[in-house]
Amino acid sequence: MKKKYLILISVVILLIIIRISLPYVVLYYANKTLTEMSGYYGHIDDIDLSLYRGAYIIHNIYLNKVDSVTNKETEFFKSPDIDLSIEWGSVFHGSLVGKIVFESPVLIFTKNKTELSQVRKDTSDFRKLLDHFMPLTVNRFEVNNGSIHYVDKTSNPKVDISLKQTHILAVNLSNVINNKVELPSTVTAQASVYEGTLNYNMKLNALAKKATFELNAELRNANLVLLNDFLLAYGNFDVEKGKFSLYTEMAAKGGKFKGYVKPIIKDLQVVGPKDKNDTFFHKIWEYIVGAVGVIFKNQKEDQLASKIRIEGDFSNPQTYTLDAIFEVLRNAFIQALLPSIDHEININSVGKKQPEVKRSFLQKIVPPTPNNEVKKK
Predict the structure, then answer these.
(1) Domain extents for the chain?
(2) Separation of alpha carbons 123 and 129, rounded Å
(3) CA 232 to chain centre
(4) Contact (Cβ atoms closer than 8 angstroms) between residue 238 and residue 269
(5) pTM
(6) What DSSP state is assigned to residue 274?
(7) What is the pLDDT of residues 306-359, one digit of tens each?
């Protein structure tokens, strides 16, 4: 009996030791993984385990990009808390999958450190990092109060534009529920954008070999005055007032996609009292920009707008530039474009030919231009 009690006590003591030491072991492994990522350096302050939930929480994580020549670090990602756990609701559907919740994360894309061509690589690296921390397939992904920044410290003035108070929710990513539906997964997002609002809705099949999704998004009434640093840096002009909105729909299936982008600017005023101290040539340029805005503005709705159709396959996308110009003219002189999503794109419309439309002589001699041809020129 004494031997049995001794074994039982030893097992209990061993379990207690494992429970106490496990967070330190996991923390050591996590930090080792972060320091060994090529092109990055990161650190985690602490990890809490919650065995009864089948979860653990990462506290105060950061991940910086490292310059391979100078070894200088640039901020890339940070978050005070990341909760990784088993999604117990999916267990009742016969699947053992996980969920990840980010609290107040910050993602920063810095010019010359994170170019557009590198975003895909950065995203893939970030997914590999999550795979190290989450051994289960992720079925639910959530971001609370996040922010996404684009920073250009080389421009004059310096640029830092962002989406703030961002909420992202992706559910059923591993098709646990409704796996016989063509688009069983959903992604929704909301954000604050310079006094405006962003709403994003997407249905997709996350396990499809080729991109299969429907999405619509709308950015409403962003205050252009708050974007003056961006406009000065890349357009060499600023504005006195104006509201920017953008509406888009897109769908993809079988390697092909179809959609449109509809930007709308309302109440635009470029030249104003604050420009009195500008140089002569800068004033001339702003007068030209303002004049173009006035000429192509729909006077009744006081808006400048266009609608750009985009379609094709992912290896050879096409942007209908001439259609965009026509929409600008139609908005200005014929009929104002509606500031809303048009609800005309869905997965069933991908790859289908549009009804025959009579085209003008100019439209016949200037066909749609593939994006890759524009780059070559």
Answers:
(1) 2-376
(2) 10
(3) 24
(4) no
(5) 0.78
(6) G
(7) 888 888 887 776 666 566 565 655 555 555 666 778 888 888 878 766 554 455
